[in-house]
Design goal:
Blueprint lengths: L5 H18 L4 H19 L5 H24 L1
Helix pairs in contact: 1-2, 1-3
């Protein structure tokens, strides 16, 4: 198979949505950013990896995300 592994697009979208959610101002912008972030996560975990490199990138991304999520939970 040639072309970009679709999971790489999912990772990039999820990361961008995470970053946008982190800096969104309170109110409607924050709500919309959270919805986009959750949708990107849903897409990410349902996207099949088509290469071993994509699978490794997904694992790295999920480890990165988990560390950020744990730190964020500790601040609550």
């Amino acid at each position: 198979m040639t072309g970009t592994d679709p999971v790489l697009v999912g990772i990039a979208t999820h990361r961008a949505a995470y970053d946008a959610f982190q800096v969104a101002p309170d109110g409607e912008a924050s709500i919309l950013a959270e919805e986009a972030y959750r949708e990107a996560g849903d897409v990410l975990v349902t996207t099949a990896c088509t290469t071993s490199a994509g699978a490794m990138k997904l694992l790295e991304h999920l480890r990165w995300w988990r560390k950020r999520s744990v730190k964020a939970a500790l601040w609550l």
